[in-house]
Specification:
It is built from 5 helices and 2 strands, in the order αβαβααα. It is mainly α.
Length: 82
């Protein structure tokens, strides 16, 4: 599955791949693929007025099984102004 994601990203130069997996991030760096994490994507959505708060979405991701450290969650909340 990772290979197909790399191929898709390489075919769509100028776009960022949304990644949270460290192995996928390392692979993307090898190929020079621009990346963005889900947390940063949520901050951008809030800044653009698409969502009112970041933290409930972060908590939903954690509840679904995505591991996010407390330090990262606090950093995201701070960057989002929450």
């Amino acid at each position: 599955m990772l290979i197909s994601q790399v191929i898709m990203a390489l075919k769509n130069y100028g776009y960022a791949a949304i990644l949270d997996d460290r192995a996928a991030w390392r692979c993307s760096q090898t190929f020079g693929i621009s990346t963005i994490g889900t947390g940063r994507l949520l901050i951008l959505a809030k800044q653009r007025g698409l969502i009112p708060f970041v933290f409930p979405r972060i908590q939903a991701l954690r509840d679904a099984g995505l591991w996010l450290s407390d330090d990262l969650v606090n950093l995201l909340k701070q960057q989002a102004g929450e």
